[in-house]
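User: Hand in any protein.

Assistant:
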Amino acid sequence: MSDEPRYSGRTRAEWANWIATPCGDRWCQTKFHEAKCVVDWMIRTWGLELLQSGSGVIDVGGEPGFVAMALLERGVPAIVVDPSWGLTGKTNRLTNIDQMMQMPGCPKFSALRDMFDENFHAKHADLVSSASAIVSLYGDEATEPSLRFAASLGKPCALIPCNECIRFFPSNNQTYDGYVQACMDIANQNRGRFELVNLVGAPFSRALLVQPPLPEWAEGVIANVSPSTAPMSGSKCNESLTVPVGVLQDLGILHQVLWKMELARSNVGFAYLGQQPTGKNERSRILESNGYQRSCAREGVAGFCSGLPEALVTTPFQVVKVRMQSKELVQLYRNDFDCLVKVLSEEGAMALFTGLSTTVIRNSVWNGIYFGAIAKLSDWSGPGPDGLAGEIQNLVTGLCAGIVATLFDAPLDVVKSRIQESRPTARRTLPATLIELSREGGIPALYKGFVPKAWRMGIGGAVGFVTFEFVHRRLEKAMSGAPDLGAVPDSITTKDEYETCLGKLSFRDGLPDDDTVQKVYDNLDRSRGVSAFLDMVPLASLEAMRRGLVENGMDAANKVMIFETLMDCSSLFLTGNTDTVYATGLLNLQRDGPTVIEMPPSVGPCTVDDAFFRFVTDMGGPGPDRGAGGKYLILPPGYKGSTPEGYYIATSPTYTNWFVGRGFLREGKPDHAAAEWRDKLKVYPLSASGNPPKMEYLNISGRVMNTIHANDFSFFEEVNAVIQYEPIDFLEPELRGNLAAIGIMKGKPFQPDERMKALLTEAAVIGNATSRAISFAPRDKPEIYENSEWQSLFQGGDYHWLSHGGAGGRNKDARTRFFYVATVNSAAMILKMVGVGSQYAMASRDSEHKYLDGAKTYTLTLPPNVPAKDFWSLVVYDTQTRSMLKTKQLFPSRNSVAHAAEIKQSPDGSTTVWFAPSAPPGHEGNWIQTAPGKMWFLLLRLYGPLEPWFDKTWRPGEIVEVVEPEDFVEASVLVWTLVAPQLPSCLRSLEAPPVHSVEVCEEELSGDVYATG
């Protein structure tokens, strides 16, 4: 056995080899993502400035440096403490700290190969004391020392407890939750505060936050809340908070200053959670940030206690004010200062505190009720919005609180004024004054001047409160150095919960919980899979075409397949026709380089499409040779070489290209077109033009073959095959990015895990369903005629699928619809070329807008003078395969040339075609067979379309269901059997017919129902 040291079960070489594998790379990505989640959480919790202070953050057990890299990337110095630092072989592309250190402005980094145990602090006291925080992810034996140091030294600490607690700590409860509880106990024993939080990306999804000891006054508050019910930081708490009398002494401004100094000393960071409710001071924010919500009682007690110091300061001024406002006394003094001097010299200093007890009571009552009302009203109204609406809310709050406080304060104020205006010779006392006022007018006498005072104090309190909040907010921002970021609209914030099609989504101050994260990522991956399916239908379709042709022998440029006796329903081929002689081949420009196609004259149109079914060039009648034939040179992507003269040249963006030509029938027969293709169509590499290889023509009429893309998970495998083969830039970055997001990326193996494979399998189901909805039930029906089921396959009339000339971008639904049911992308198919090329119309529903059912009988009438110079045709297709419907009728079509002798026209020149499982008597020549249990759709083709088609003066009829006579009989019998038993009771309800008439009807109805005729 090797003596080489092992780390977590592997040697250095084994780790290094495994890290280089895709599995190891994914492990590294997961661990780095986890580290970034923890570091981001630390920054949110304690602030970047705190973490950057001192020597930085100690990363305990930090090999190979995931947390350190995350800290450095965010500008935080890092010190890794790990006895195996740099020795395990786990170093990878994500932890290249040496390269990171070369970057300008990189924070300081250092590493210690040492065990973070009970002796570490003695050896490295300066390092520990100067560190800003401690972090440890699965710290093994270092877990408990990290906790003790953090709690006892007042260091913020974030750690995920060791997930191998059974191996390292067998004495503890041998479950992960049990060990977490043990860690909490350790933190408590060392005067730390703990909090469990969920961390996105962490396998155990929980971290333990340790905060340093709080100031004594705060501990006094916390001591009055039982540990079992003490709220966590940031949690909602509706319990009232009992404040002991001793704590009331700490509510002055001095203790607020000391409290802030204590916060700074102990490096505790409290996150400011955004806009606070109206009337909330800094102390309330600090308490609430630790879970102790503001209390109306606490605010009221604080206000009540403020009455004494306020009375001591203000009573002398109140005495002078009252004397100067008294009609009898004002004549004794020249001015305010003279009044003050005379009171002191004649009556003594204590005269300035006349009515002190009453003033204390009055001020305490008013302040207590005012501030308590402010707190309660603020709780009712909730956080005040910014801007004018917020100021109005503050104004109303202050006004109401002032009026309520004055209601209790008014009697005391009247008594105070009477006492303070009295001279020493007639000094009044509180009880005597109350008795005097009650004799003068009872209780109303105590409220003399209440209305003006209520308005004065209410309006004054309102204006004062608005001004206070306005100035307070701005001073707070100015002193904190924070910029004025303006209002935070509700529209940009995230609520705590949403009910969606994914279920409930839950957030904590905008941060999604683990369940929400899983739901949205599953939805994201599934949605990207659906988008990839819809976007890649053209690509998968041509790849399926390529595979089908190659499997049937087309493996060289000089091999061409010809449907010499036309295509029938044996081949699975998207909406192929039975009307023209197909000649088709594949170009491999990577293998063969520039490739020549020699096009015969006067055969028919031919098109070249690339691997994404994009148009490359037309040949034949719609092409630049205009039916005269010629040589076409197809260049590969990025070709830089010279090109010879005498060729029609087109450059393809892809290596794989498919061409297909259609030879027209002569006298309804394919012989001439097949011979033209076989004798004159040539395909060869340009490099072999001096001695082209001999052509091989494969007759594939009647061949059973599949050229249709998959609708399950293998769809994505088809797409991946094309991505790996074709040049990287043949697709735009947006499409490539979406494919890469689901694991399809050039140069990378497509190996989705079980979760991703399941999501992509579902995505294929949804994508296929969406494609079928778009194809057979389009929302924006591309009707050729108003109120018609005849629709255009080329929705928007643009072979680039651009909407409104490009102003509406690319119509992706139109592209998906076309390539889901058809092939061949050609400019000629949508251009108005009277008498040239072909035009198409598709119908999948009857005149009642119902899908076409193969068990039923339908008719379609084509009006006279069908606008087709060459011929027209109707072909029936299977809705499942989008290929010709398989029946005993090998050619499920009618063609005005091939079937000219069989088709019968009506006397008016119109033609009625029948669709049914069996031939209607007398209409065999006009009949296309359908199949019970199979749905179908129809394509009308016009070859050499004429002007009446384009100007819509000629319009085909709708497909009409034919109800057979026997169906009427069956329906009548069914109705009669249902209605007959109810007739007697119905007739009895009529007064006119006698009872015996009903009995006659019953007797008649008791016979055979079929005999009733």
